[in-house]
Amino acid sequence: MATHVGGAGHGRTRGADTGAWVTGWTTTAAVLMVFGGIMALLQGIAAIAKDDVFVATDDFVYKFNLTGWGWVHLVLGAVVVVAGAALFTGATWARVAGVVLAGLSMVANFVWLPYAPLWSIALIAVNGFIIWALCAPRGRAAA
What is the pLDDT of residue 17? Predict the structure, then answer.
């Protein structure tokens, strides 16, 4: 049931506004997923093709072969692009996959910190937003 908002002459309802707002954030999350996935693909290719592009500290607990991390970013990026594109169709599986993939991307970027610290921190924040946007209440539950 929608609640009337505003004074005389304002026929807006809270339910209608909430649905449009949630849909807008879901679309934003989809765009960020597609963009972030493409950037992860490029990051993975750079790590695989030319290991001297990235500089890392030797004393990092989660040290891993840079080429191996390149493959992780490449595969994860491709899957994120597919899930992000599927979000535009409104598929429920894409929302669930988006939350899971954004979580995995947060973990991957955490362990990627020594190679690209500012970029990793920015992507951790963006993935947190994606999870929030995809978990926001929908439809009648939001009203």
Answer: 46
Structure-block tokens of residue 38 = 């493409």
Q: What is the sign of the dihedral through the CA atoms of 53, 38, 124 and 82?
A: negative
- State how far the Cα of 10 lies from the Cα of 3, in Å rounded to an integer: 12
Among 40, 28, 42, 128, smallest CA distance to 84 is for 28
| Model confidence, pTM | 0.75
Lookup: tokens for 97? 């996959």
For residue 84, which of 30, 135, 47 has the smallest C-alpha distance?
30
What are the angstrom distances between the C-alpha of 7 and each of 1, 12, 138? 19, 10, 26
The letter for the amino acid at 97 is A
Of residues 69 and 129, the one with the higher pLDDT is: 129
